[in-house]
Design a protein that fits this description.
Shape: elongated
Helix content: 55-70%
Structural class: alpha/beta
Number of domains: 2
Number of strands: 4
Radius of gyration: 28 Å
CATH topology of the largest domain: Oxidized Rhodanese, domain 1
Order of helices and strands: HHEHEHEHEH
Length: 150
């Protein structure tokens, strides 16, 4: 009886293993579909960002800079020290609500950061504080490369 019970348990384990092998490709297929979807969404977001950057730079940021606009780098001090556009002013997103009074509301500012997200936030904060001429420059290195081309 014991041998027969062990045999049945072994058979049940084998059946369970075979069943798992048969159904795994379905899970693998679903996971691959999810991965492809996520990669597609990320790719579309990146393409949208690049198109936005081209559109923004075509709106004349380089012209504004040549006319005296101030580049406001809103990254942290450590990020700024690792690289920045020459002549840029550094006030981080975390400090801008306290230090915006150091800025002249009559001047033109172009906000930049590492990817363009913090610079949008600072652009909006400054506009809420009464600044009229504030533009988002996006990623500082993209703007720097664009300025070198012009």
């Amino acid at each position: 009886m014991e041998v027969q019970a062990n045999h049945l348990q072994g058979h049940a384990r084998l059946h369970h293993s075979v069943r798992n092998l048969l159904y795994r490709p379905k899970n693998l297929k679903q996971n691959m579909k999810k991965a492809i979807l996520i990669v597609g969404i990320l790719l579309l977001a990146y393409i949208g960002y690049r198109i936005y950057k081209i559109y923004t730079l075509d709106k004349g940021l380089d012209q504004l800079i040549s006319e005296g606009a101030i580049i406001l780098d809103v990254r942290t001090e450590k990020e700024f020290e690792m690289g920045h556009i020459q002549g840029a002013l550094n006030i981080s997103l975390g400090e801008i609500r306290h230090r915006y009074t150091e800025l002249d509301t009559s001047k033109t500012y172009i906000t930049v950061c590492s990817h363009g997200l913090r610079s949008v936030k600072v652009e909006n904060i400054l506009k809420e504080k009464g600044f009229k001429k504030v533009y988002n420059g996006g990623a500082w290195n993209d703007l720097q490369q664009s300025l070198k081309k012009h």
